[in-house]
From TrEMBL:
The protein, known as: XdhC family protein
Xref: InterPro entries: MoCofactor_Util/Proc, XdhC_Rossmann_dom
Family annotation (Pfam families): XdhC_C
Domain XdhC Rossmann, first and last residues per copy: 77-218
Domain of life: Bacteria
Length: 235
């Protein structure tokens, strides 16, 4: 691999940004394509598909053969609120391949006994996220029902371009949330990205069922990058 290409790829990976090394198999030349870069034609379509699926591939395009070696950051899930839904969601998300961190300043809820073998921060979200910033390969689920805890990470997730931003609550609760986020400076376009009520609509009622609905929506968002419209469930 060309040393410049390798250096650039390593920098992108360190910054948790997706990149692909595209090799022309005819002459062996490599180039870096970052997610979001404009590449026209069949090659561009194939690169976009690789970014969505995370699968490297060899393709024929424009009369040439190319190998697309895609490198995606590990998607992760940040859960705001050490609640019953979180207790069900966290182990399921880990099985699905999403490392999970639970954040909740309420020390009665955020305990190792309730969340064994999980990164757990009994701190205010703004303090945790200052040390460990959100990014576009992070999903954030706000589950506390408490504006003092949920609002800051929701706005931070919108500003960071998280691939999924979901918030627990009814439509009436969300309407008040929209007013608060607007006052905090979030735009209408940003707020529209919040999935609220949270989770795909499967008629979920128990914490475990809501967790299933939320995880399904996270996976859907990750694989579609927001292309597919999603419905939610209230809680």
């Amino acid at each position: 691999m060309d040393p410049y290409v390798l250096k650039t790829l390593n920098a992108e990976r360190l910054a948790r940004r997706a990149a692909a090394v595209v090799t022309d198999l005819g002459d062996g030349r490599d180039r870096i394509v970052r997610e979001g870069d404009l590449v026209a034609g069949e090659l561009g379509d194939a690169i976009a598909k690789s970014f969505r699926t995370g699968q490297s591939t060899t393709i024929q395009a424009e009369g040439r053969s190319f190998f697309i070696n895609v490198h995606l950051p590990q998607p992760r899930l940040i859960v705001i609120g050490a609640v019953h839904i979180s207790q069900a969601l966290a182990p399921m998300a880990k099985i699905a391949g999403f490392p999970v961190e639970i954040i909740d300043p309420r020390t009665a809820f955020a305990t190792p006994e309730r969340f064994p073998d999980l990164p757990l921060a009994a701190e205010w979200p703004e303090d945790v996220l200052r040390r460990n910033p959100l990014d576009s390969y992070t999903a954030l689920a706000a589950l506390t029902h408490d504006p003092k805890i949920d609002d800051f990470p929701l706005k931070a997730a919108l500003e960071a371009g998280c691939f999924y931003v979901g918030a627990l609550g009814s439509r009436k609760t969300h309407a008040k949330r929209v007013e608060r986020l607007t006052e905090l400076g979030a735009t209408e376009q940003q707020i529209a990205r919040i999935d609220a009520p949270i989770g795909i609509d499967i008629g979920a009622s128990s914490p475990a069922e809501i967790a299933v609905a939320v995880l399904a929506q996270i996976i859907q968002s990750y694989r579609s990058r927001g292309v597919v419209a999603k419905a939610g469930v209230a809680a």
